[in-house]
């Protein structure tokens, strides 16, 4: 299967191009947050304007009314998307929050991929006791209620931080939710990759490599890993979408990004508390998050179709099954189109 | 023994009834899962420096002596494995006490269960029906003409939006537009069915819709793919060749077999929500169910309720996954009980 042909097919798929463009635009906008804050909104993400007034089309408006209701979208440079109860600019916080949400999701995704590939290669290549141990560990994470595990870890660690031996993460560090999310999703990816590794190990070209006297490590990295590349490619946007969702869920429950740092999840949580009066506090971060997650999911689906046009089927994740559930049916088909079981 | 009889008895190589062997295997697995999960949860809170339960029990104004007394009185000075065994004993005898509220956790979960059961039963029926309906429609449209395929893509986009929505955003939007703006439904809370059936229904509709939005999209995509897959199978061609109407083939042959992945999916999602997995939805709608109790307990770092609810979720999931496997075996004779 030609990788170049796959890229051409991907670029021919209109939905993939649009999704990619939307995702790129969101990432770019969030990266440019300081520019927007400095040159257009003239404020920072944590700057308070609670007692100030602004002029919108000739009218003087209080940023936050005496009863504590913040102004809605002004559709001008200052307070483009309105203010929050602390008189902070929602648009500015949206971009800075996006930086945090995307940063966490990106780190978590990379972490999941690295861990999953290591687990899959070790378990699939060596088999035996190592495979059993790693597979059971994956099963355990899999059968644990994801959101509960995340919240439990997030809340405890948010206060105290964690000492990893080689590095210490302070409470409130962005790396904490990234670490939690990264670990939680490892089994989703490690299982199909392990099945693929086992399948590849039986092929002739691996025998040939062995006959040539290549070491196990070189075969794993030089022969097997490249053959896992297309699955990893499909998994990347998929994991990104789910990491963004889980981050928002954790932050919503107070177990992710800690105040006053913004993230899409914490912003929606703040907006929910002020619900009927100021729906823009929920809509702005909510729609932004939705746009990012939808684009990542569409991209993943298109990538899978392009890399493996034969496989139209979706792989179903047998949610949190028992320890005795083997690899899901169709695990050898490569990457799934969706990860089921998002935080409800 | 004839070849046919031999083939039939294959799953029971070692003798005994296949159903019995299945039940024993699943029971053993369940004990293992529950043990591993309880140990992991317990250790997470033991390893973490801030997890000291004595501080939580003593409250913010406690003196060092009070904290020390509580530590001894509750046995937190004992080795970890003794503490673990004691906690497990308390859970299974129903005497486990919450650290921050000092109330019986089992009673609290019992009080929260009706709301969670109401949520699960109503929502799971809705999301299954909608998911199957949309999936069937998508598969039929996908095989149709140009205009039909556009309809299929629209359904796909709709499903993708639902799948990509965070649970609390769905809840917020439903509450705001249908509850606050249109005043069609109450703004959250739970009324027991036995108290006022009508109020119960109006309070449950938005949470039901919320979970339906989250799950139906995924089901429709899985079913659509499964139907398109099944339609390529040889027995479907055979059925058509024998002159059976396409409508009958669709319902009796294709749909029946395509529903297999949906059945296991449904069973496990049902179990996850029933076990208190819908933390976000229950919290947004303030249902006071098991999920909301779990969310509140984690925020208070209250270990006993977290342990109990985690075990409950795992228990329900294991039982329901065994039930769905039985259902699948009944639907498809090719499926063997493992």
Notes on the protein architecture:
The complex is a heterodimer of chains A (344) and B (338). Chain A is mainly alpha-helical. Chain A is built from 12 helices and 4 strands. Chain A has a two-stranded antiparallel sheet with strand order 1-2. In chain A, strands 3-4 form a two-stranded antiparallel ribbon. The radius of gyration of chain A is 23 Å and the shape is elongated. Mean pLDDT of chain A is 80; it is low at 311-337. Chain B has helices at 3-8, 18-47, 53-58, 64-73, 80-92, 105-142, 146-164, 167-181, 197-231, 234-241, 246-277, 279-284, 290-299, 303-331. The model of chain B is unreliable at 1-13 (pLDDT under 50). At the A-B interface, helix 6, helix 10, helix 11 and helix 12 of A face helix 2, helix 7, helix 8, helix 9 and helix 11 of B.
What does the secondary structure layout of this molecule look like, with pairings?
The complex is a heterodimer of chains A (344) and B (338).
Chain A lengths: L2 H10 L1 H18 L1 H9 L11 E4 L2 E4 L27 H37 L1 H16 L2 H15 L1 E2 L4 E2 L5 H10 L1 H16 L2 H8 L4 H37 L11 H10 L6 H28 L37
Antiparallel strand pairs in A: 1-2, 3-4
Chain B lengths: L2 H6 L9 H30 L5 H6 L5 H10 L6 H13 L12 H38 L3 H19 L2 H15 L15 H35 L2 H8 L4 H32 L1 H6 L5 H10 L3 H29 L7
What keyword list fits this structure?
heterodimer, A: 344 residues, mainly alpha, two-stranded antiparallel ribbon, two-stranded antiparallel sheet, B: mainly alpha, 0% strand
